UniProtKB/TrEMBL annotation:
Transmembrane segments: 49-66, 87-111, 123-145, 157-188, 260-277, 297-316, 336-356, 368-386, 392-409
Matching Pfam families: Polysacc_synt_3 (PF13440)
Compartment(s): Cell membrane
Stated name of the protein: PST family polysaccharide transporter
Membrane disposition: Multi-pass membrane protein
Keyword Cytoplasm attached: no
Alphabetically ordered keywords of this record: Cell membrane, Membrane, Transmembrane, Transmembrane helix
InterPro entries assigned to the protein according to its UniProt record, in alphabetical order: Poly_Biosynth_Transport (IPR050833)
Organism lineage string: Bacteria, Pseudomonadati, Pseudomonadota, Betaproteobacteria, Burkholderiales
Keyword set includes Cell inner membrane: no
Assigned protein family: Belongs to the polysaccharide synthase family.
Length: 417
């Protein structure tokens, strides 16, 4: 009887509301749907259309990074759960941020259209401006659900939104709508996600404008904001250079190789960080020494797995592009072989960031980003001179490696008492 009960207990535990299994299932489903959408639309429309969409999404990423409040991470990491009044203040702040970002993007759309050679694709930028607004309107209870590690609930919301995004995008693309279909799918998915955060998550904050009550989060969140601003340069520098100097077609090739490498490598670690951040935080609150031992196990497993996977992807890069995207995308293969290394280092960094923020050392991640900026600024000019666009990718590799080394040092030498 004991032998019969143990497997049942194990399976039940693996699918408990807080189990990492839900994070993995969410990752598999969401990233799978994103992959299907972008690969199918990329094959239909080609590099130039994907490049135009990338410019619109790049503008959103820049605006959101510059205005990152860090409140979401602060709510998850905080010693005490927020009150309903504090949640109202968080919602007021995030909604105001979303409105301001959207208005700014609409105002700057004509300038971006001319600077990135979009040839009249103004509607792409205007549609992209809806995304930060929809995200700002979502219920901040989503972060409480993350804090409480209700990963089953989060997975349901995220997968539903991704399914709508993929379905709407593909249907419109097959119907001949063009590049706009990508953004219309994203808008539909974000609309559903924001609605579900209010309809399915409790406690619901009162819908009133409140600006006070989040002072306790400011000390932690300012480091998140600083990290976001620095990461803005690190994550978007190469894309801005390629888009500005070479136009949408080259940006499309660069972006697709980057996205494919990210989907195959970094996204899994980024998704796992959603589980690791609140999990490490909970462990650290109860037993700092135990959390320090746990991170070493995760780091060893991640490093070994990534090394094997990167080598495999580099070997099959050319047939992979030919099979998934067609001959038009083969010039992106050399970039892909470099970018899989970048994404592997980024995956390791995602685990390190989750731990350092969970133990309250968000400052270390800012320092690591600053190191990466210095390395990038020093190495990019000669690298671009000698190797062109691939030089930018190699420069990013060097910077990521230095940042990862610093965070690893801070993680392994952190005081646990």
């Amino acid at each position: 009887m004991r032998a019969n009960r143990l497997p049942a207990f194990s399976v039940a535990g693996s699918f408990g509301a807080s189990a990492a299994t839900w994070v993995l299932l969410q990752q598999f489903a969401v990233r799978g749907l994103v992959a299907v959408k972008f690969l199918a639309i990329g094959r239909m429309l080609g590099p130039e259309a994907i490049g135009s969409v990338s410019v619109a999404l790049l503008a959103v990423a820049i605006a959101e990074a510059l205005s990152d409040t860090g409140l979401a991470q602060a709510v998850i990491q905080g010693e005490h759960a927020p009150t309903r009044s504090q949640l109202s203040a968080v919602w007021t702040t995030l909604t105001a941020r979303g409105v301001l970002i959207s208005l700014l993007l609409v105002a700057l759309a004509p300038l971006l259209n001319s600077q990135f050679h979009l040839d009249g694709s103004l509607v792409l930028l205007q549609l992209a401006a809806l995304l930060p607004l929809l995200r700002g309107l979502a219920s901040p209870t989503y972060y409480v659900v993350q804090r409480e590690r209700r990963f089953q609930h989060i997975a349901g919301v995220e997968v539903a939104a991704a399914f709508v995004d993929c379905s709407v995008g593909l249907a419109l693309a097959y119907g001949g709508v063009g590049a706009v279909s990508v953004l219309l799918g994203l808008v539909a998915g974000e609309t559903l996600k924001s609605a579900l955060t209010w309809l399915t998550m409790t406690p619901r904050p009162p819908l009133r404008v409140v600006w006070s009550g989040i002072g306790q989060y400011v000390g932690f969140s300012r480091w998140i904001w600083a990290s976001s601003v620095i990461n803005l340069l690190l994550n978007q520098f190469d894309k801005v250079v390629v888009g500005k100097l070479l136009g949408p077609a080259q940006l499309g090739s660069y972006q697709m190789s980057s996205r494919l490498a990210q989907m195959l490598l970094a996204d899994a670690a980024i998704a796992m960080s959603q589980y690791l951040f609140p999990t490490f935080a909970a462990h650290h609150r109860r037993n700092p020494q135990g959390a320090a031992r746990l991170i070493k196990v995760y780091l060893l497993a991640v490093a070994v797995g990534l090394a094997v996977f990167v080598e495999a992807l580099r070997l099959v890069a050319e047939p992979l592009f030919s099979l998934l995207l067609g001959a038009a995308w083969l010039p992106a293969v050399p970039l892909f072989r470099i970018l899989v290394i970048n994404m592997a280092i980024g995956a390791l960094i995602a685990v390190l960031v989750a731990y350092l923020r969970a133990v309250g050392d968000a400052r270390a991640t800012v320092h690591a980003s600053a190191i990466q900026v210095v390395v990038l600024l020093a190495s990019a000019p000669p690298a671009v001179h000698w190797w062109g666009v691939t030089g930018i990718a190699w420069s990013m590799t060097l910077g990521l490696g230095c940042a990862a080394a610093w965070m690893l040092f801070r993680t392994l030498t952190a005081r646990t008492s």
